[in-house]
Amino acid sequence: MKKRVVVEIDLKALARNYRKIAAHVRPMKVLCVLKANAYGLGVADYAKALTKAGCTMFGVADAFEALELQEILKGRGEVQMLSAVFPDEISEMVRAGVILPITDLATAKLISAAAVKAKKVAKVHFKLDTGMGRLGILAKDALDVMREVKRLPNLDCEGVFTHCPVAFTPQDPFTKRQIALFKKIVA
Q1: What is the pLDDT of residues 15-38, one digit of tens each?
Q2: How far is CA 75 from the centre of its chain?
Q3: Peptide bond into 101 cis (omega under 30)
Q4: What would the mean pLDDT of 39-54 be, rounded to a whole number?
Q5: What is the mean pLDDT of the chain?
Q6: How far is CA 71 from CA 47, 66, 80, 112, 175, in A?
Q7: Residue 166 gets which letter from DSSP?
Q8: Minimal CA–CA distance to 57: which of 161, 169, 177, 163?
């Protein structure tokens, strides 16, 4: 009896698609998301193929995945956590050079303190909640929180991101509202 479901992965096609996307959005960079062990398919082969194709930025869900991916990349790319960083993970993530999400002012203060203690500058990205309602700085608070965080020592506030849960249908009214709100905050 044959299996009903078969997954075929073409790493050359993955690399080709990455290069097309990167060329289209240049000078911006593409962050490739490899969370949950590349959605259960095995992160190492994907990370190596994407790195060979020129990718230098990768997103993961948690601290364990961040350290695992850094080991695979061996310094050939940056790793960013896309979900919450827990207080007991912050010091290790700062020491490891993982790009951390700022989801609230309290977390930003903990990251700043850990960076000061480690005599490092921690790269951080602001995660905005533009409507998903799960994690991030609320739109109404975003500018005030961002201004406060930028005053904290040893933080390199280099980016802003959000989570669009139905972005696969770009004409969806919810996604359109999220993108409009995100653009308004960034402006």
Answers
A1: 999 999 999 999 999 999 998 888
A2: 17
A3: no
A4: 93
A5: 94
A6: 11, 9, 14, 25, 35
A7: T
A8: 161
Structure tokens at 116: 């000061």
Task: Give the pLDDT confidence of 138-153 residue by residue, as tens digits.
Answer: 999 999 999 999 999 9
Nearest to 57 by CA among 115, 107, 18: 18
Residue 77 clears pLDDT 90, i.e. is over it: yes
> Following DSSP, what letter does each residue of 106-163 receive, concatenated?
HHHHHHHHHHHHHT--EEEEEEEESS--SSSEEGGGHHHHHHHHHTSTTEEEEEEEE-
DSSP track, 17-62:
HHHHHHHHHTTSPPEEE-HHHHHHT-HHHHHHHHHHTT--EEEESS
Residue 23: count other Cβ atoms within 10 Å of its Cβ. 10
- What does the alpha-carbon distance between residue 100 and residue 184 come to, in Å, rounded to a whole number? 23
Query: What's the pLDDT score for residue 108?
Result: 98
pLDDT value of position 39: 83
